[in-house]
Every structure is written in C-alpha cells, then in structure tokens.
Specification:
By secondary structure, the protein is an all-alpha fold. It is built from 6 helices and no strands. It has helices spanning 7-12, 14-27, 35-48, 52-64, 69-83, 86-95. The longest helix has 15 residues, at 69-83. It is globular. The model has no long low-confidence stretch (mean pLDDT 94).
Amino acid sequence: MEVNPLKIIHDKDNELSSILESTRQCALSEDGIPLKYKLLIALALDADHGAVEGVKNLAMQAMEEGATKEEIMQAVRVAYYICGAGTVYTAANALRDIL
C-alpha cells in the first residue's frame, strides 16, 4: 500500500494538516465538475510540474472514479499542448506500470 506523501506533515503539524485537508476537500468536492475530471486536471498539472508520483497517484484515483485509460491519455495530450514535451516524459514515467 502506498504511504501518504504528507504523512510526516500530519504526524508533526496537525494544524497544517487540517488546512491541507480542508483545501483538498474544497478543491475536490463533487460540486460542478465531476471528481474524475478534477483528478484529470490535477494529473495534467502534476505532469507539468514533473511530479511523477503525483501523476501516478492521480491516475489511479481517476480510474477509481471511472476515468478510462483513454481519458488519462487525453489529459496528457492537453498538458503537452499547453506545457510542452516535459509533461509527456513525466507522464510516461508515472503511467508505465498502471496503463
């Protein structure tokens, strides 16, 4: 099982952990845009930022919410179009074992 990358924050700074959780709940609420699409947006942003583990975790979460492999690859295409080739390399590293 994956360890929460923010576990150290939760363990050492409960106030910051609460702020982060509140922000996550606000951003990923089911209001307006369905959760799977919000996760695909976040995946594209993480690809742009070079966050391989973020892309991987978000892809798995998106699939749990019903996203298809094709939808994940479409999110990678959008990231590439807006942000450039580096996003494709990040996504390739993240997705090689899950797609």
